[in-house]
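[SOLVED] Predicted holo structure with S-adenosylmethionine

Edit: marking solved, answer below. Original request kept for reference. I posted the sequence and ligand SMILES and asked for the 3D complex as structure tokens.
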Amino acid sequence: MYCEYTTFPLVYLNSKLILLKKEILITSDGSHTIYVPYLNETYHSRHGAIQESAHVFIKEGFNSYNHKNKTSILEVGFGTGLNAWLTFLEAKKLNKIVEFTSLEAYPLDWQFVSKLNYISLQSDSSKLSLFKKMHTSSWGYFCEISSFFRLKKLMVKLQDVIFNREFDLIYFDAFAPQVQPDLWTKNIFASMYKALKSGGMLVTYCAKGSVKRDMKSVGFRIESLQGPPGKREMTRAIKS
Ligand SMILES: C[S@@+](CC[C@H](N)C(=O)[O-])C[C@H]1O[C@@H](n2cnc3c(N)ncnc32)[C@H](O)[C@@H]1O
């Protein structure tokens, strides 16, 4: 892995304004991810960003859900937009209608995101304008990315939002529990349980025992599934 590009956005962390360095790295499948030295954390698995997203959120999430007319998805952490993008491609392939809501507390700017190689690796460059539309669309309300894909980005912290039975699927893609323990609590999982419709499901790359126990304690039925390359397990939590 080597650094391709660096940016220094100004962000508020713990009530302090700091320059938070972010670097673009290449993961084992050739796709990019972002590394945050301050947190010593990457946005995706170093074993393959696209592989991880395609396995955890598309194969075990989107493709494993019994879709009705329209599927409403909540994502925790819009970040690079990779999960939204892969969902868009899959919805197109399977002829599904998707309403995608994504929370992001620290948005990335398009100038930085445009350096990522997700479009050039996966599809022809004509798709770049759709990926750009996802990133540059307004915050706070649904924007039509295409006739079958609507996107609502919310610039909020997960801890500050209350949802009620609105979603079929949740992509829980927060930074790891050791980096952001406040996003992996029983209270947060109770709020995710409430956000789902009956029969809805949450998928995450995390397979930590305490996380699965806390999810179970708020009502979820837990399935431990094979993880993406480089990771033994991942988790699916179902609201029965
Ligand atoms: C592991 S990254 C994944 C991002 C994205 N799904 C992707 O594929 O690029 C976690 C994301 O959660 C965002 N985040 C961090 N704290 C948050 C919070 N309290 N509420 C909402 N999003 C948060 C980060 O800025 C980052 O974009």
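OP edit: The mean pLDDT is 94. Thanks to everyone who chimed in.
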